[in-house]
Structure formats: C-alpha cells, structure tokens
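As a next step, we paired sequence with structure tokens, yielding the entry below.
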Amino acid sequence: MSVRLPFALRCASVAALLTAPLVLAPAAGAAPKAGSALPGDIVVTAPGGDYVSVLTKGDPAAHRELPGARPVVRDLDGDGRKDLAVQRDNEDGGGVAVYWGTGSGYAAKPTLVSGATLDSGLTAGDFDGDGHVDLIAAGPEGPGDVRLTVAYGPLTRAGAPARTAKLNTKETFAPDEIVSGDFNGDGRSDVVTEHSFEEAGHPSQLWTGSAKGLGTTSRELAIAGAMAAGDVDGDGVDDLVIRAVPDGLVEELDFDHGTVQVLYGSETGPGKPVSTITQNTKGVPGVNEDGDAFGASLAVGDVDGDGCADVAVGVPGEALRRGGKNLDDAGSVVLLKGSWKGLTGEGATAVTQDSKGVPGVSEAGDEFGSAVSLRDIAANGRTSLVVGAPGEDTDSKDSGAVWVLPKGATSGAWAVNPGDLGRTGNEEARFGAGFGR
C-alpha cells in the first residue's frame, strides 16, 4: 500500500512536526569519536579505485585510508553499528570488502563478501522489506548480457549473505550508475540502473522491490546522465532526479549546458520526467552556457528541515569571471529547494569558492561541484552540503579538495585536502572525485 502523505501534511506542515522536542543529536560536548561509524563520517574517494579516506569533522589527523572504491556505509550485519563496504580493485582480486563497525571505528582487517560477484556500482537498500540491508552491484563484463547480483542481508561476520539472486540487464556493459529508493511507497527499496553504450545513452531500468526481493524483470525509464533519489515533494514517496542526456548522446554531456529533471514517485513507480530545471529557469542562479554540465553530479537531502528533500546540483564546468578573465571550469554548486509543488527554481542558491565564508578561491580547472553529497556530517540531525573539487591545486596540481557547508550555508564552511591528511605525492590524486553513500 502506498504511503503517499495527505496534501495537508506535506513539506511545511511536516516541518512543524520536526520542531517537536525529540532529541536526535548527541548531548552537548559529546562529539562523535574520530573514525567512528557515525553519521559524522565523510567517506571520500579518488578516481581509479585507488583508495577511500574516512574523515571526521574537526580531526583530519585521525582519518583512515583504505584501498578500494564505491564505499557504502550501512549496518550490514544487523548489530546496530554501521559498517564500511568497499569495492576492491581487480588487481586485488575484485569483489567487496567489509570493514565491520566496532563502536570506536572500523575493524583493522576486512572480510570479503562470499558467494556473490559484486564488481561495480555497489549500492545498498532493503529490497525485500525485512529490515536488513541488502547489497547490489553489477557482475563482471564479458560475453553476453551483464547481470546484477543481489546479496540479501544480513551478512554473517564471515561475509556470507542470507541469499543471493541475479538479474539480467540485457546490456553489454555494466550500468554507469545504480541508485536505490522507495519509488512506489511500499516500504521496500527499488533500484534504477543507468545505461549507455559507446556514445549512445540507453533507457534506465527500474527494478521493483517486493516481499521476495527485487523483481527479475525491469521497466524502462528515461535516459539519464546522472541520478539521485529522494522525496522532493514531501509526499512520502521517493522521486528520481536525473540529468537529461541531449539527443540521447552521452558523448555530448561534457559540452552541454545541462538539464535536471524529476521523475516523481507514485504507486506505480517513477513516470515520465515532469519537472525540468536549467540555469535559465526562473530563480536559478546563472545562465545556460555550453559546457557548464549543470547536473553532472546530483545529491538529494532535506537541508532546511521542511520535510521536502532539496537537490544539490554540481556544475563543474561553470566558467566564472574575475579581473576581466574567464576562469573556465572553475565550477559551482546550485541548491534547488524541494517543495509541495515539486522541484522549482524558487529559492535556489549557488555557491562557489568565491562565496563569502567558503575557504579558498575559484581557479580555472578546479571543477568545484564534480561530486556533491547531502548528509548529516555533525550527527545532529541537520543535513550538510559536501562538495568535491578534484581539480583543485593545493600542494600539487590536481590534488583535489573537499568542502563541507553546514546546512548548505557558507557560514562555518571548512575544507580538507590530501596534504591535511598527511598524504604526500598528491599530484593528480583528484581527491574529492566522489563520496560514500
């Protein structure tokens, strides 16, 4: 049964409920311990699957660096502690390694997930609605169609899933992206996979959750160049936010101004795109320019606490101007406000490194906004905006950096780069190319 909220309880009305005296944050002065598996952890990735860094606000010296990519932070064994799963490089044998949460951090050595081929696109959800976290990823590419593998939870401490299943995508290559969300309001996670082949985008595929798990057949959705999920209109059902692909050609994405669309959830799942937003939309800062790549990265989360999720839109190709010179690919992030009307340009804001309160200055090639995340960094129930700029030059060229903006505001913003973490040899490290999920 759908849990779509009555109109009167959506967004602003929900915000009133959120102000009730329910204590979600730690007691005053009880900061999350460095390295702990708490909401305050930020997991940052570098391209190529070289490593992930686990950071805790205010204590970068206590960070931990682990080999792998595509990090997922969830309670995978049902013990109440969040665990960290990462995809291993093929040179290390591939598959997924789990660092179990200990209450004071993560275990020193990982456990490999057994009995399931989880090679790319690692994503988590509760696909059968049993209260346990499940994992999904694409299997290895090879002759024939690529299959998705589902490892249903809970995992044992030996890494064995409760059961596994395989889904046939009927695609030659692994999905470009996999996201999960409850798109029909039945209390179970569904999955959308994003596909392309060479220069052409292919329709995304919706896999619906059920009491038995994900269905073995999919339904086609719009072609997408990036995806994120969340409830932007506050009706209790997740919506799918995508970057539209111009003329269906993914090779044009780097040269396109960028368009963001919303496929709203319903009892039958996401439909056709309804809301369409560009930088020419009323209220949205900036203007459409070729190469802006508006929507190259997307994240969904409720920044202002009104019960409607907001959308962070990365614009890494945004050219800024200073002193009569163009700063090509300096980058920006636009925060679009969710509302009971859905996603619009009303109240939208933009941030760059030149914004007051944001550390650093915008420079050509920074690509600020290449990665975005909306999450509870301070572990206080408030969503913060996290931004990656892999082209940032700190101690060396393209070493990269990450910014955290509490509640999406520039006041109190802070930044970290690989040098802050004691890492050397950072040329072209491109730290901040992605974040955990």
